[in-house]
């Protein structure tokens, strides 16, 4: 039985070497104001505030967003919500990178002009003087690492940003390492928080990326911890796709996730979930939280009930044997090395 929000009481864990502590499950807001391929808005402002209320009730204090989520509405809604609270009690992270103006190539990437403008704009939308963590949403190979780190350090020195992070779709530990080496040599602020995609079926970061993070004591906050909903149990290999599912609207999702190999992983996930009396989603999140090097997964939801179920993963305790079984269900890319 899933506990009530008041009974979950999320704990905190160290955010790498920053000195900050983060909620053991961070709240991701990428669905706020998002328009789907079918033209539907996933979460409007009223529901966004309901979800933020629910996260707060469960003890959560770490809010993850980006300046492109909902075309900027996501940050505005978070800012309106925070305006009625003590800003210092919450850790807010945002991201910059993706193009925001058609026909303007300089409104994309991590060039100094774009980053400075974007940070000023997101602070205005959030109605705050600073953000706790600024991520580059993806790596920009057209901007030299030295230029990037000098720009980001300037934002830290100005007080607009406290810590720096890097989000990624593919492992890029060497790029972060190179940038941090430049920063250390110049006495600048390095990246201290990493945000990769990581879950039971997306295992690309296992190996060098996680090992690098562990060795350097960098925080790792994975996004898509439920494989874009695949690990929630809503899909069946022999059944039609649910009409309201992501898979029904995205052929790319079907090709990436609805494979025999991934359904085999889900079979093991269901078995362990039954053993611990939890849902598939809760068990998948608990597995991720048990992984060496992972700091705090980022969870999201469309409804308060879904969020409550996901946050209850913090109450699930898996044995070492169960963690090992889930890990072995789909070997990572480096298992043979």
TrEMBL record:
GO molecular function, one term: oxidoreductase activity
UniProt name for this protein: Predicted oxidoreductase
Superkingdom of this protein's organism: Archaea
Keyword Oxidoreductase: yes
InterPro entries: AKR_Detox_Biosynth (IPR050523), NAD(P)_OxRdtase_dom_sf (IPR036812), NADP_OxRdtase_dom (IPR023210)
Pfam families in the record: Aldo_ket_red
UniProtKB keywords: Oxidoreductase
Residue stretches making up the NADP-dependent oxidoreductase domain: 24-329
Gene Ontology cellular-component terms listed: cytosol
Organism: Halorubrum sodomense
């Amino acid at each position: 039985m899933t506990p009530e929000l008041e009974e979950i009481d999320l704990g905190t864990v160290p955010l790498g070497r920053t000195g900050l502590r983060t909620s053991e499950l961070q709240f991701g807001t990428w669905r706020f104001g998002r328009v789907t391929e079918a033209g539907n808005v996933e979460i409007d402002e009223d529901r966004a505030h309901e979800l933020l209320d629910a996260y707060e009730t469960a003890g959560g204090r770490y809010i993850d967003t980006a300046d492109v989520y909902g075309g900027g509405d996501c940050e505005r809604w978070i800012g309106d919500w925070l305006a009625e609270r003590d800003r210092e009690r919450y850790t807010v992270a945002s991201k910059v990178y993706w193009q925001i103006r058609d026909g303007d190539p300089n409104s994309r990437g991590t060039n100094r002009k774009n980053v400075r403008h974007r940070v000023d704009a997101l602070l205005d939308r959030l109605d705050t003087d600073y953000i706790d963590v600024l991520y580059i949403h993806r790596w920009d190979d057209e901007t030299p690492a030295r230029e990037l780190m000098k720009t980001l350090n300037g934002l830290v020195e100005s007080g607009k940003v406290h810590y720096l992070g890097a989000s990624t779709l593919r492992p890029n530990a060497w790029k972060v390492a190179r940038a941090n080496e430049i920063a250390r040599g110049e006495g600048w602020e390095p990246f201290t928080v990493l945000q990769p995609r990581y879950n039971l079926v997306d295992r690309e970061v296992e190996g060098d990326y996680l090992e690098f993070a562990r060795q350097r004591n960098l925080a790792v906050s994975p996004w898509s911890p439920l494989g874009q909903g695949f690990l929630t149990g809503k899909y069946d290999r022999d059944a039609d796709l649910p009409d309201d599912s992501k898979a029904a609207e995205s052929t790319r999702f079907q090709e990436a996730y609805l494979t025999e190999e991934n359904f085999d992983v889900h079979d093991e996930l269901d078995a362990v979930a039954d053993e611990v009396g939890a849902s598939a989603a809760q068990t998948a999140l608990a597995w991720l939280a048990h992984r060496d090097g992972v700091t705090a997964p980022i969870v999201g939801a469309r409804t308060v009930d879904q969020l409550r179920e996901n946050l209850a993963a913090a109450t699930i305790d898996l044995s070492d044997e169960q963690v090992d079984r889930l890990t072995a269900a789909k070997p990572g890319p480096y298992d043979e090395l």
